[in-house]
Amino acid sequence: MTERADASFKKPITVALTGASGAQYGLRLIDVLIAAGHEVWVMISKAAHMVIATETPFSLPAQPQRLVEALSERSRARPGQIRCFGREDWMAPVASGSGAPSAMVVCPCSTGTLSAVATGASNNLIERAADVAIKERRTLVLVPRESPLSPIHLEHMLALSRLGVVILPAAPGFYHGPQRIDDLIDFIVARILNQLGIEHALVPRWGEVGNAANTPAVKDD
Question: Binding site for dimethylallyl phosphate, residues?
Fold first, then answer.
């Protein structure tokens, strides 16, 4: 059954975290979307929970309601602003073209998830939600972080790109003069927000004055 988004929030955005390195990108994206007033629908794979516990100070619960509470506390979300779904919650609105939001981001996106999405496997809710985004011609952004890339990975990326999926590798630039790891994370999150059409001030655009003295602005690659 489709549930209407709270009218006090901006349009819902689906964010899925899978088992690639780079959990910080996905968590930061959730924080920024919450701060921008969007409702955020979250899915975290089993492998992603392990990566989050390894790469960050956080150990997030797997149970959806407890996950909502943990993410809401972390992101300072308002009640109802975050919704979380389990890997086999087939009644979740993201599983249907009539209920899914207009945009979805998989960040980080493991090469296993990339493969499943490219082949339409739909073995779990994250893969099904991505499949729905493709079939409904909605915005889908995949953020892989793998190196080096094999021909299998590249062929899957090319196939998805030809379907209109945005392939946005987690490869931060350095020409904006990053001073902290957070600056590198924000570089990628800013690129994702650009693809979603969401205004932000995470990094200055090319041609704009930098936020700090002698710091060049950031251009789109």
Answer: 175, 191
Determine the Cα–Cα distance for residues 219 and 221; give it in Å rounded to an integer: 6
Exposure string of 45-83, with b = 16+ CB inside 10 Å and e = fewer, is: beebbebbeeeeeeebeeebeebbebbbeebebeeebbb
183 vs 3: which has the higher pLDDT:
183
Q: Has residue 123 been placed in a domain?
A: yes
Residue 6 has a pLDDT of 63
Q: pLDDT averaged over the chain?
A: 91
Residue 176 lies in a domain: no
Domain housing 60? 10-171
- In the annotated binding site for FMN, the residues are 19-21, 45, 110-113, 145
Global pTM value: 0.91
How many distinct structural domains can be found in the chain? 1
- CATH of residue 91's domain is 3.40.50.1950
Question: Which uninterrupted H or E stretch holds 105?
Answer: strand 103-109
How many C-beta atoms surround the C-beta of residue 127 within 10 A?
23
CB-CB contact of 47 with 38 (8 Å): no
Give the residue among 3, 1, 27 at the shortest CA–CA distance from 15: 27
Residue 190 lies in a domain: no
Q: pLDDT tens for residues 65-94?
A: 999 999 999 999 999 999 999 999 999 999
pLDDT at 22 over 60: yes
Point out the annotated binding site. 19-21, 45, 110-113, 145, 175, 191
